[in-house]
Amino acid sequence: MTEELFRDDADLQSCAATVLAVDEEGIVLDRTVFYPLGGGQAGDAGDLVTADGRRVAIVDTRKHKGRPGAIAHVPAADAPRLQPGERVHACIDGQRRQAHMRFHTATHLLCALVPHPVDGCSITAGYARLDFHTQEPLDKAALTAGLARLVAAAHPVRGRWIAEAELDANPGLVRSMSVQPPRGLGRVRVIEIEGVDLQPCGGTHVANTAAIGAVLVTKIEKKSAMTRRVVLGFAAPAAG
Known about the structure:
By secondary structure, the protein is α+β, with helices and mostly antiparallel strands. It folds into 2 domains: 3-92, Beta Barrel (Elongation Factor Tu (Ef-tu), domain 3); 97-234, Threonyl-trna Synthetase, Chain A, domain 2 (Threonyl-tRNA Synthetase, Chain A, domain 2, 2-Layer Sandwich). The protein has 3 helices and 15 strands. A 6-stranded antiparallel barrel has the order 2-3-7-6-5-8. A 4-stranded antiparallel beta sheet has the order 9-10-15-14, covered by helices on one side. A hairpin with a 3-residue loop joins strand 12 (187-193) and strand 13 (197-200). Helix 1 crosses helix 2 (140-152). It is globular, with a radius of gyration of 19 Å.
């Protein structure tokens, strides 16, 4: 098992850790700040630095397929090889993570503006997209204005845990048609944007909608008769 420090503190960018295993999937640590690909959100990148100064570039992070509960840190092809038992300092690419957090929270705002199920999601450092299960047309300008209003309102964002029984009693909390929250632990993590949105989510988020900054709908596509794709981007900073 890898202790997932990012679950309780998405702003934490580094930690000390011990290498548990190294295999074809990557490097497994006993604890990490690296978020693994999941829920539509891309995995983190960054570095693992050893006590003697060797730097192992991590190009991706994924859930380990052969070790339940473990996280695989995927090293660059030319990275130094680590050994089990080594101590490292794990440090994520903070700019990349911050973009993921801003976009992920923005997609939750988008869910509040578009009251239809989601059947696809992708969150990267360069853009985010949601596929909504609907045949209704969506208005790019209206959605951009709605996002700006919710960002400016500075709604607090917090993660908390609810019992699986509570989720069962409120099935409408699950917006995604393709990804269901993990079961079997007795509880499910939800993200609450105060007064705006509440849904199960294991991803990383900003602590307040104001931290999203200027975000806009860059494209709306009709992907099929019942799918409308909404793509988000960050507004370019004003010229100095």
